[in-house]
Design a protein that fits this description.
mainly alpha; two-stranded parallel sheet; two-stranded antiparallel ribbon; 15 helices
C-alpha cells in the first residue's frame, strides 16, 4: 500500500496569512517545520546529498514499484511508494513523468558513444549514436502525451501543484520556512520541478544549447536539487569537445542531418511541454481568475484551491511560459543548415520498425530492468 499524506496530517500550515507584529507593522511570519520533523529530515537529506524539500528525484525517480515484479513497466503495473492528495491524478502525474525518464535511457546510454566518437574523429559512430538519441527524444514526447489521459488539469492545478511548490520565489511563503532545531533563520528552497531532471540538461550540454542568462541561472540552480551523480554527469558532458563544432568540421551530410534531427526532436519535446503546461496551468489559471471576478470562487471548484501566487509560476519558482518558450527558442539557435535529402535519409535511418511507444518500453525493459 502506498503511503498517503492527507490534509489532516499536514505537518505545518500552508496558510500564507500567518503574521506577526513588528515595530507597528504587520509582516508575514516565517512558517516553521517542527523539530521532530525538521531534524531527521535535514539529517537524511544531508546524508543523501539533496535539499530538505520534495524534489524530482524524491517524487519520481525513487517513488515507484512494480505490482508484479516480473510484469511490464507500464502504468497498469506501477504504483507509488508515497502519494499526495489528488487521487489518481497524483499517480498519473508522477508515473507518466517516470515513463518520460524511462524513454530517455537509450539516449543517455548513447551520449558516451557520441563523446568517444568525437574524440576519435569517428563520424559514423557519432551519426549512429545521434540517431539513437533522436529516436529516444521522440519516445519521451510520446510518453509525455500520456499526461492527458492520466491527469485531470483541474486537480493538478488546484491540488497537486500546492504540494510541489517550495518556499523560494513563492509569494505565498515570502519569508521562507524555519527548520526548527537546525537554524533560527528561515531557509528558502525551490519546489519540485521538471527542470530538476538531468535529462534535458544532458542534451543541452551535448548539443551545445546556450541559454539566456536568467533562464540559464535558474537551470544551473536546479542542478543542486539533483542526485550528485546526475549533476556530475552533466558537468562531465559540458567539459567535452564541442559536438556541434565537430559536425561543422566534418561537413558530412548524414552527420549534419543526424545532429539536426536531434535538435528538431528536442524542440518538439519542448514545444509539447509548452502544450502540456498550457492545458494544466494556463487554462485552469484563467478559469480561477474568471471565478474570482464573478465572485463565486469556492472550494467546490478545484481550481479555486490554488493560491493566486501560483498562477503564472512554475513549481520551481520560474515564470513558467516565458521560461519554456525562451528555452525552446535557444534550442532552435543551434540548428545547422541542412540539405533536405540528407535530412530525409537520416530520418529514415533513425526510424525503428515499430515506432510505437510500447516498443520503447520493451526495449528499455530488456536493457535496464
Amino acid at each position: 500500500m502506498a503511503t498517503t499524506i492527507t490534509d489532516s496530517q499536514k505537518p505545518f500550515s500552508l496558510d500564507p496569512y500567518h503574521v506577526s507584529e513588528v515595530s507597528g507593522f504587520i509582516l508575514p511570519a516565517p512558517l516553521m517545520l517542527p523539530r521532530n520533523l525538521a531534524i531527521p529530515y535535514w539529517k537524511v537529506s544531508q546524508r543523501v546529498g539533496l535539499p530538505p524539500i520534495l524534489t524530482h528525484a524524491d517524487a519520481v525517480l525513487a517513488n515507484w514499484k512494480k505490482r508484479d515484479p516480473h510484469g511490464p513497466f507500464d502504468m497498469e503495473n506501477l504504483e507509488l511508494l508515497v502519494t499526495l492528495p489528488g487521487g489518481d491524478s497524483v499517480k498519473g502525474f508522477f508515473m507518466v513523468t517516470l515513463l518520460v525518464e524511462l524513454a530517455a535511457v537509450p539516449a543517455i546510454k548513447s551520449i558516451p558513444l557520441v563523446i568517444n566518437g568525437v574524440q576519435c574523429g569517428d563520424a559514423e559512430t557519432v551519426t549512429s549514436a545521434l540517431e539513437e538519441i533522436s529516436q529516444a527524444m521522440e519516445g519521451m514526447t510520446d510518453a509525455l502525451k500520456l499526461m492527458h489521459a492520466y491527469v485531470k488539469p483541474e486537480v493538478f492545478y488546484g491540488i497537486i501543484r500546492i504540494y510541489l511548490s517550495g518556499w523560494k520565489d513563492n509569494s505565498s511563503m515570502p519569508a521562507g520556512l524555519v527548520y526548527e532545531g537546525i537554524q533560527a533563520e528561515p531557509m528558502e528552497y525551490s519546489g519540485a520541478s521538471a527542470a530538476q531532471s538531468s535529462l534535458l540538461h544532458c542534451f543541452d550540454e551535448l548539443l551545445g544549447v546556450k541559454h539566456e542568462e536568467k533562464c540559464g541561472a535558474f537551470l544551473t540552480r536546479m542542478r543542486n536539487y539533483m542526485p550528485s551523480t546526475h549533476k556530475h554527469l552533466i558537468q562531465d558532458i559540458s567539459l567535452q569537445p564541442s559536438l556541434r563544432g565537430f559536425v561543422q568540421q566534418e561537413a558530412s551530410e548524414l552527420l549534419t542531418a543526424a545532429f539536426q534531427l536531434c535538435v528538431t526532436k528536442l524542440m518538439a519535446l519542448r514545444s509539447y511541454h509548452i502544450n502540456v503546461v498550457s492545458r494544466f496551468i494556463t487554462v485552469p489559471a484563467a478559469r480561477a481568475r474568471q471565478l474570482r471576478s464573478q465572485g463565486n470562487s469556492s472550494q467546490e471548484e478545484t481550481v479555486s484551491r490554488a493560491p493566486t501566487a501560483l498562477e503564472e509560476t512554475g513549481t520551481g519558482g520560474s515564470g513558467i511560459m516565458s521560461f519554456l518558450k525562451t528555452v525552446r527558442d535557444r534550442t532552435r539557435d543551434i540548428s545547422l543548415p541542412l540539405d533536405n535529402r540528407a535530412m530525409q535519409k537520416s530520418t529514415n535511418g533513425a526510424q525503428p520498425q515499430n515506432t510505437q511507444y510500447t516498443t520503447h518500453q520493451t526495449h528499455l525493459q530488456s536493457n535496464t530492468f
